[in-house]
Amino acid sequence: MTAPTGTPGIVARDVCKSFGSHLVLDNVSLTAEEGSIFALLGPNGAGKTTIVRILSTLIGADSGSMQVAGHDVASDPDGVRAVIGVTGQFSAVDNLLTGAENLQLMADLRHLGRQAGQRRVAELLEQFELTDVAGKLLSSYSGGMRRRLDLAMTLVAAPRVIFLDEPTTGLDPRSRLTMWQIVRQLAAAGVTILLTTQYLDEADELADRIAVLDEGRIVAEGTPGELKRRIPGGHIRLHFAAPDLLRSAAGLLPGAAPDEDQLVLQVPADGTVESLRRLLDQLHGACIDVADLSIHTPDLDDVFFAVTGSHVPASSLAGRSDPHPASQGAAQP
Amino acid sequence: MTSLAGTLTDSRIMLRRNLKHQLRYPSMTVMLVGMPIVLLLLFVYVFGGQLGAALGGRDSRAAYLDYVVPGLLLITVASAVQGTTIMIAMDMTGGIIDRFRTMAIARASVLTGHVLGSLIQILLGMGILIGVAFGLGFRSNAGPLEWLAAIGVLALFALALIWLAVALGLAAKSVETASNTPMILLLLLFLSSGFVLPATMPAGLRQFAEYQAFTPVADAVRGLFSGGAIAGHVVASLAWSVGIAVLSYLWAVRLYNRRRAAEAR
Fold it and tell me: Do A167 and A76 fall into the same domain?
């Protein structure tokens, strides 16, 4: 889609922004290499959307410097606007037009020319599976269809840098997977993507680099692997059928944390097969039956809570009701 | 593209978008164009007999029809600009405006598209109203030059009120507020020479009616249609139009540039 230029997609240095006396961004610096996916992870109110609004020229920063695809955000906003695409949190579509007309409007405003514009519109309708509803007014579109159209509108002029502000919030699982697939394809084609999300699994799944944003500061940054390595070992959770089994197992394994109410014993482990075998052998030798077990490897949830501290209320993180979600690889005994 | 050519191209694209909106939202368009016609029938056939008696002459209803047509042309303007305010507020409160702002397009084109679209709607509406009025027996002894002048006076005044409506739409916090604010224009119109002679009003009200924007415009158009005195009215209406247009334009641009800049996350 785009030829590599060697210029980083996004560079931000020491960006600060206050609304009134409230400091929203506190010396934020980040670099997204060309063709990479950079995820900004943080709870509501962390300042994610503000960064996107500043980098996409919607509002100005108080201080700091920023370049998008080599164009300075402060001194050359039109240069930035010509190479970016933005899909915000709220759908930026024209409800009184049809899907095709929305795309055509973008093609016109990007001055693609009549034929090239029509070709691009047809291409995008096809790519985003909107051809069947192209002539329908947006009032008949589902949430997922609107979001796809929204992103398609962003892509009309083949931007080199794309900002996606919570692109999957409110989408059903299937639409979410489709969106992920599209994002990956774009990055593979050389487009730099900055996405914000409050879903840890989304950042883990998509991003080459992740910055964790909390109260306007970047509190951790790295690849998903690097961030996970910062958090010491995982654990194995053993479920028992009766309290006496739990107690004898706890006696056998020093360092394990028993939970009498749930009949669960949490044993620190490094996640290797060898350590698991040793544990099971030990329990078998003492004739203690294990009803069920699950292996918990450190994930971004742990990273997030370790770096943002305990002041973040769990309810501020969407989709996070259980501190140990069942999505971690569970092993059958 | 920030050149004049770019502004024109982008404004044309935005105008096309606005005209499509008018077609897609026919209930509003029909209401805004239809209401002045309903009012015309109401004023002529219900109130006309009695109101026209004060004007003197042989047939009071016909006399009132001739008197009231400029007032209803102004109703067309005042009711159409309500639509402008609503359309602007819909754009500003929706997400689409952020998309436009992150694109390299002439910034003014978002507003000028609405302004031109509203002007076209108003001119069409006035054309339909004049046609209906002729059907009801409206007669004018204006020549082509007078007609042109009347259209010019009305179009300039319409442009002024459209910019005012744009500013009101930008200032509105929600579409609901936006749909109410231009009602004041309709009220002002009733307190002018649009429907009755200000001379028949009580003292305080009469002075107000004589010195507000709608009166000189209505009087100028009436004078051009009937061959009466116009010079003072035309000058006054041009002054009002230019004054309202310039102030509203500056207010609108200020609101447009400032909007969202102060908005929190």
Answer: yes
Identify whether A305 is part of a domain.
no
Same domain, A190 and A287: no
Closest chain B residue by Cα to residue A21 = B264
CB-nearest partner of B102 from A84, A108, A111: A84
Which of B17, B96, B265 lies at the smallest CB-CB distance from A92? B96
Percent of residues, chain A, with pLDDT higher than 70 = 89
Each residue's pLDDT tens digit, A249-306: 888 887 788 888 888 988 877 767 888 888 889 889 888 888 898 887 776 677 777 7
Nearest C-alpha neighbor of A200 from the set A235, A174, A168: A168
CB contacts under 8 A, A 108-147 vs B, are: 108-111, 137
- Let me know whether A117 and A263 are in one domain: no
- Predicted TM-score (pTM) of the model is 0.80
Instruction: Find the domain containing A154 and state its range.
Output: 10-228
Best of B96, B114, B260 to disrupt the A interface by mutation (most A CBs within 10 Å)?
Answer: B96
B92-143 per-position pLDDT tens digit: 888 888 899 899 888 889 999 999 999 999 999 999 999 999 999 999 988 9
The total number of structural domains in chain A stands at: 2
β-strand pairing of A71-72 with A63-68: antiparallel
3-state SS, one letter per residue, for A205-216: HHCCEEEEEECC
Structure tokens that stand for A230 in this block: 């910062």
Q: Is residue A218 part of a domain?
A: yes
The DSSP code for A197 is: E
